[in-house]
């Protein structure tokens, strides 16, 4: 058996376990381990992007390491626009914003505002997620056919983390420690 086949079988098994757990749950305060895990991943990804935008000085929002990539500001605008695409699909509605609407914003304040508004829109979608609704079939973003609602939200988190990787490089090239690498303050005794 190949590694790919083993991975596929493992993923299928995990989904079956999650589906069985979902069917056994009721809405009245039942644990929501799948939805909670997705929300936790969302919380971490959105914090890293927001903190990165805060850490980068406005004068460096036009920085790009080479001509063939986006500027730092365009990256922030790109992920803000993509939030609407992923979350509107999960919500079952047309995106209220064009995906590329924010890449041309020129100031840090405008880009951070666009980011914050996209997060506010997505927060409602992630908050409404339950283990049961995670398995519901939706029209996937980017014309990918049909899929589970949770797939769109996991795709959103993955997309944010992908671009956070780019952002980390931009920050490091400017001598800035990325948010996820900052020293942690130990809890008070």
Secondary structure: elements and pairs:
Elements: H1 3-24, H2 33-55, H3 72-91, H4 108-128, H5 131-134, E1 137-139, E2 146-148, H6 149-173
Antiparallel strand pairs: 1-2
Primary descriptors:
two-stranded antiparallel ribbon; 61% helix; 189 residues; Four Helix Bundle (Hemerythrin (Met), subunit A); disordered N terminus; globular; mainly alpha
Describe the structure.
- It contains 6 helices and 2 strands, in the order αααααββα.
- The protein is mainly alpha-helical and 189 residues long.
- A two-stranded antiparallel ribbon has the order 1-2.
- Helix 3 (72-91) runs parallel beside helix 4.
- The longest helix is centred in the C-terminal third of the chain and has 25 residues, at 149-173.
- It starts with a helix and ends in a 16-residue tail after the last helix.
């Amino acid at each position: 058996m190949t590694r790919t086949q083993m991975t596929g079988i493992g993923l299928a098994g995990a989904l079956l376990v999650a589906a069985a757990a979902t069917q056994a749950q009721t809405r009245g305060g039942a644990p929501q381990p799948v939805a909670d895990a997705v929300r936790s991943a969302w919380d971490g990804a959105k914090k890293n992007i927001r903190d990165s935008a805060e850490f980068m000085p406005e004068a460096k929002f036009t920085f790009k390491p080479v001509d063939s990539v986006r500027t730092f500001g365009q990256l922030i605008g790109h992920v803000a626009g993509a939030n609407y695409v992923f979350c509107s699909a999960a919500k079952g509605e047309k995106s209220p914003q064009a995906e590329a609407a924010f890449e041309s914003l020129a100031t840090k304040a405008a880009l951070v505002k666009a980011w914050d508004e996209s997060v506010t829109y997505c927060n409602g979608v992630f908050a409404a997620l339950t283990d049961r609704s995670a398995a519901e079939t939706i029209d996937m973003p980017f014309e990918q056919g049909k899929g589970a609602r949770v797939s769109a939200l996991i795709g959103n988190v993955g997309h944010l983390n992908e671009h956070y990787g780019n952002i980390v490089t931009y920050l490091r090239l400017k001598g800035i420690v990325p948010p996820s690498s900052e020293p942690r303050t130990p809890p008070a005794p």
